[in-house]
């Protein structure tokens, strides 16, 4: 009889430990405590059976019963602490889950185009400079030989900050600023933002230009042609047709606009090129000696050429984009295509 109670106590203890190991919440552990150690719990019920035992065996059975109770209480405490620690650690990390992909940013097409153009010219020996977007009338117009109140200023729809200050309408003022700062030889390109009061499918109030300026001894129109033809062939393709067409700018004499064979129709004539087969991509010319007067260069010593082009325009032609505003809407579905 005492052997039976002892055996029952031990199997009860084993059963309780198995249950405890499966308990996943404090509530489940508490329910097990009540089931095994409570007043109506398993251990108590078994001990009540001790009443029928001979007095001399009771201490022996009592010893086992106490041990089982203490061990169970200990196990319950341990499990409770373990669950609390697990909760404090937070949810388990599933190391088999695939990682979250981080989206990498990329340069905007305008930035990329500027970088590409800049790289072509730096390979030819040009340096890169940048200048202020809020510019004095003096640099934007006057020192570039735009006479005051002269109709040539109407070529640009100027945004005025005050009488003497404008948002630069082109990057050309950096020609003057560069020559003020350094003596020849000058080989510089200037990328940057420019502003005009203009807005439609091919014009935005803010756009980008790249200016180029070369001044040195014996620079000729042949150098201008060589540099610009080389640029066009590198930027578009080695067999792109190029032509120089006489034009006028106040700060160059003679002046030429550069056209390339239409990238859409290959020169046959289409809507994009207005049936001419040609697309204008930049303005250029030999630096007008009048400009040298403003920077104390001696026109008998040096000559030079300059050019300026619109980045958006050139990118639209290269990538077949028909609305300039797409550059500035930041629609990722557009931007990601390039
Ligand atoms: N600044 C002119 C414009 O915005 C473009 C230009 C023409 C720049 C001739 C030049 C140049 O440097 O030589 O329309």
Describe the structure.
This protein is of the alpha+beta class and 338 residues long. The protein is built from eleven helices and ten strands. Strand 3 and strand 4 form a beta hairpin. The mean pLDDT is 91. The structure holds 3,4-dihydroxyphenylalanine (DAH). The site of 3,4-dihydroxyphenylalanine (DAH) has 11 residues, from strand 9 and strand 10.
Question: Could you name the key traits of this structure?
Answer:
single chain, BirA Bifunctional Protein, domain 2, binds 3,4-dihydroxyphenylalanine
Secondary structure blueprint with pairings:
Elements: H1 2-22, H2 26-37, H3 42-48, H4 58-89, H5 109-123, E1 127-128, E2 134-136, H6 137-140, E3 159-160, E4 165-167, H7 173-181, E5 186-195, E6 206-216, H8 221-235, E7 242-249, E8 252-261, E9 278-287, H9 289-295, E10 303-310, H10 311-319, H11 332-335
Parallel strand pairs: 1-5
Antiparallel strand pairs: 2-4, 3-4, 5-6, 6-10, 7-8, 8-9, 9-10
Bound molecules: 3,4-dihydroxyphenylalanine.
Helices, by number, come to 11
Report the bound ligands by name, code or SMILES: 3,4-dihydroxyphenylalanine
The CATH class of the largest domain is identified as: Alpha Beta
Rg, rounded, reads: 43 Å
Coarse morphology? rod-shaped
Largest sheet: 7 strands, mixed
CATH architecture of the largest domain: 2-Layer Sandwich
Overall tally of domains: 2
**CATH-assigned homologous superfamily of the largest domain:** Bira Bifunctional Protein, Domain 2
What's the rounded overall pLDDT mean? 91
Q: What gap, in angstroms, lies between the N and C termini?
A: 89 Å
């Amino acid at each position: 009889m005492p052997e039976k109670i002892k055996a029952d106590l031990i199997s009860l203890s084993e059963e309780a430990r198995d249950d405890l190991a499966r308990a996943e919440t404090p509530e489940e552990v508490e329910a097990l405590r009540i089931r095994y150690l409570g007043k109506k719990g398993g251990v108590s019920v078994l001990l009540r059976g001790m009443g029928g035992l001979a007095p001399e065996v009771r201490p022996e059975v009592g010893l086992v019963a106490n041990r089982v109770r203490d061990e169970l209480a200990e196990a319950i405490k341990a499990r409770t602490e373990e669950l609390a620690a697990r909760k404090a650690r937070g949810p388990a990390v599933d190391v088999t889950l695939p990682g979250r992909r981080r989206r990498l940013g990329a340069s905007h097409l305008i930035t990329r185009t500027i970088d590409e153009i800049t790289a072509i010219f730096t390979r030819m020996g040009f340096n890169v400079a940048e200048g202020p977007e809020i510019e004095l009338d003096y640099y934007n117009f006057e020192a570039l030989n735009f006479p005051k109140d002269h109709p040539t200023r109407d070529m640009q729809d100027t945004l005025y900050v005050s009488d003497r200050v404008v948002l630069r309408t082109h990057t050309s003022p950096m020609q003057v600023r560069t020559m003020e700062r350094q003596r020849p030889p000058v080989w510089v390109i200037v990328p940057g933002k420019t502003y005009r009061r203009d807005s439609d499918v091919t014009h935005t109030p803010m756009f980008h230009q790249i200016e180029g300026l070369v001044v040195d001894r014996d620079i000729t129109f042949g150098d201008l042609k060589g540099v610009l033809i080389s640029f066009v062939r590198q930027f578009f393709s080695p067999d792109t047709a190029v032509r120089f067409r006489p034009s006028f700018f106040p700060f160059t004499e003679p002046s030429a606009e550069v056209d390339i064979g239409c990238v859409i129709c290959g020169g046959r004539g289409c809507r994009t090129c207005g049936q001419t087969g040609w697309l204008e991509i930049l303005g250029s010319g030999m630096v007008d000696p009048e400009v040298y007067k403003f920077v104390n260069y001696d026109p008998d010593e040096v000559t030079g050429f300059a050019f300026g082009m619109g980045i958006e325009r050139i990118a639209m032609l290269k990538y077949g984009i028909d609305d300039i505003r797409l550059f500035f809407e930041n629609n990722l579905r557009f931007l990601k295509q390039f």
